[in-house]
Amino acid sequence: MNGVRDQVRIVELEPNHAAVPMGREFVAACVQRWGLDQLSGDALLLSSEMLSNAVIHARTPIELRVHQLAEGVRIEVRDGAEHGIVAPRKGDATQAWGLGLRVVARLASRWGIDPVPDGKTVWAEVCGPRRSAATVEPELGLGPTPLPVPGDWPEVRVVNVPTRLLLAWEDHTRDLVREFALVALPPGPGRRPEPDYRVAEVVGVLDRFWAMVRPIWAQARAGGESLPGRISLTVRLPEQVVTEAPRFLEAMEAANDLARGGRLLTDPAPGELMAFGRWFVHAVVRQMERAMERSTSDVNDVEERCPFSA
Prior knowledge:
By secondary structure, the protein is of the alpha+beta class.
């Protein structure tokens, strides 16, 4: 830490909608107590984004720590989930993280992720005036942990996929999942009434499908490009992807309609990006159906070639 002082305050929070406002109030009280009011805006925004990520993705009890530094504060959010955050390749912070951690990367003087025996700690330090528009690379104590993948899952091979479209589509879907998950959280004090659309159903479909195809994003982040601006993917996915894919695409269309109508904070996806997402999901399903027709243990020797430009 940067010039750590003895003062540290700790609060434990439950993983529900009330955790974010309660955590913000706790951080605000700490900043005010230590006479660091000039850092209040950034510290509160950072704590909101870090707590939102923990509530949505970890879904375990949360420990919030606020340390007084020589020239600022350090905010730590500890949860019980070992996975849930994928480390970006160097120089790729603005693309690899979801909306919440992109905010952290823009505002923090330093930030990072550290492993703990029963989970992880995401931390950020705020020192001095607001940073420029440049992002800060995370200090990673926790690297990209590969997810275990059963060897009998059907194999999917999609080649020459435009990296810009693949990562943009992942980023857009992550933001939708995050926003819908926040809206669908259990009520807390002062919670507004539920919107009139079927939030819980949409977030359930998006979240379920996204968890199934996580090996795709793990490989996309770790693998190099097969051609300039393109990447080829070979992954194994669970058979449920085939049955969940139509529901996922319907939920994406519904979410995008809401975004176009100004009912979401997430911007609507451009037409090219939505078309790419539909093609990609259909390509994955076609590959899986071919593999399942042979044997789930056979290598799929038919590849899908992406028709979109890099």
